[in-house]
Design a protein that fits this description.
alpha/beta; TIM Barrel; 8-stranded parallel β-sheet; two-stranded antiparallel sheet; 13% strand
């Protein structure tokens, strides 16, 4: 399996965007658009997924029109954020369940986290995906909005980082790229960024940032649509050159692929094409637009700048990580072991 993306000799690099599609089959106009303005990848959601046979046909159709090594992403954390669900795919616990086990028995918690990452990765890999948008590295904050809630492993940043690493390593063992989210930390938000723009007024964000610093070795990270007054009082992190350069790239030390959270979320104002341009100019590598609205997706891809060489290098490094760390895994044995632990 090819994970990651990058330019192929003799081909132009794809555009620095991952986009959604409308439904369970690739439409003719979507196929034509991807041939004319090839994105770096496609993300699929529940509206696109019915059963393994349908999904296999859809992914085969996408592979015919996407660039070589284009990514196929799915939001698959476990718990309430899961696009691949029973009866066709495994059920997975929310991060908080694994965190509770870790609090009682650290070794068992870390093993359950790795097993969960590996099982999610196997489901994703066998279905044809190259990226799973997990793990969440946000800390749990009492009183914050539950948009993160049980998606967080724990309150303590070191526990979050250790469990996040275990999930990420399990995904990589399955040959699937993990994405640490949402840098530099979404746990403190008091409103849902899907619906409105969160503003965090706290001066000390060191605990929020620390899990990302400890996991700066991940191949991919995702930004947060949040204004942090102490970091940049004017722009949300996704659109902030200050946050991306000084915090994510320098303080956290992240050198991998930085992808935006979904530009369709209502935290951000402006057309998706405008927001993609702003995010890429601020320092994001990939603009993520998930709605599947054809006209808006077409406008975004038409407006996308060429992919810079630095992004191409980061994408190749991610692909290499998935290839070199992949192991032979037995899903039945892994699930039986996780069932015993949980």
């Amino acid at each position: 399996m090819m994970a990651g993306s990058g330019a192929v000799p003799g081909q132009s690099p794809p555009l620095p965007a991952i986009v959604g599609i409308a439904g369970p089959a690739l439409l003719a106009e979507e196929a034509a658009l991807f041939r004319a303005f090839p994105p770096a990848g496609v993300i699929l959601f529940s509206r696109n997924i019915q059963d393994p046979d349908q999904l296999a046909g859809l992914i085969a159709a996408l592979r015919l029109v996407l660039p070589d090594h284009a990514d196929l992403m799915v939001d698959q954390e476990g718990g309430r954020v899961a696009r691949l669900r029973p009866p066709h795919w495994h059920a997975h616990p929310p991060a908080s369940t694994i965190g509770e086990l870790f609090a009682d028995n650290p070794a068992a918690g870390l093993r359950a986290a790795w097993l969960t990452g590996a099982l999610i990765g196997l489901d994703c890999r066998d279905a044809g995906f190259t990226i799973a948008a997990a793990p969440v590295l946000d800390i749990s904050i009492p009183g914050a909005h539950d948009v993160i809630g049980d998606r967080a492993f724990a309150r303590h940043p070191v526990a979050v980082a250790r469990l996040g690493a275990a999930v990420a390593n399990g995904l990589l063992a399955a040959g699937v790229l993990p994405v640490g989210k949402h840098a530099p930390g979404h746990g403190r938000a008091r409103v849902d960024s899907h619906l409105t723009l969160p503003r965090v007024d706290d001066d000390d964000l060191s605990a929020d940032i620390r899990p990302f610093t400890l996991r700066a070795d991940l191949p991919w990270m995702m930004t947060a649509h949040i204004v942090y007054r102490a970091l940049d009082p004017h722009f949300p992190a996704t659109l902030s050159a200050t946050v991306i350069k000084r915090i994510i790239r320098e303080r956290i030390g992240f050198e991998g692929v930085l992808v935006t959270d979904d530009l369709a979320m209502k935290a951000l104002s402006g057309t998706p094409a405008y927001l993609a341009g702003q995010a890429l100019a601020a320092g994001c590598d990939i603009a993520l637009y998930c709605s599947g609205d054809f006209a808006l997706t077409e406008a975004l891809l038409r407006a996308c700048p060429p992919m810079p060489p630095a992004t191409q290098r980061r994408l190749r490094a991610g692909r290499n990580a998935a290839l070199t760390q992949r192991l032979n895994l037995d899903p039945k044995a892994l699930k039986a072991e996780r069932d015993r632990l949980l």
